[in-house]
Amino acid sequence: REGRIGGRRPKLTAQQQSEIRKMVSKGDKTAADAARLFKVHPATVSRLMARAGGDGMASRKVTRAK
């Protein structure tokens, strides 16, 4: 068989992920700003914050007006 065992390599190292989580959760940078800084898609940062249970866009609840 061809292909990678274990899937694709992560774009961000563990240290970079930690740094992004700190920046965004402290409010120093927005998720979009952090994404630009590390040259990744904003969805990558949002997914990272959601996994960490942080304050990223993915973790916010959206409520509809009645």
Count of alpha and pi helical runs: 3
User: Any idea what the shape is?
Assistant: extended
Strand content: under 5%
Q: What's the average pLDDT? A: 84
What order do the helices and strands follow?
Answer: HHH
Q: For the terminal residues, how far apart are their CA atoms?
A: 54 Å
What is the alpha-carbon Rg in Å? 14 Å
Q: What is the percent of helical residues? A: 40-55%
What kind of oligomer do you see? Answer: single chain
Walk me through what this model shows.
- The chain is mainly alpha-helical.
- The termini are far apart.
- The protein is 48% helix and 0% strand.
Outline the secondary-structure elements:
Elements: H1 14-26, H2 31-38, H3 42-52
Helix pairs in contact: 1-2, 1-3, 2-3
Give the gist of this structure:
The chain is mostly helical and 66 residues long. It has helices at residues 14-26, 31-38, 42-52.
Write out key terms for the chains shown.
extended; mainly alpha; 66 residues
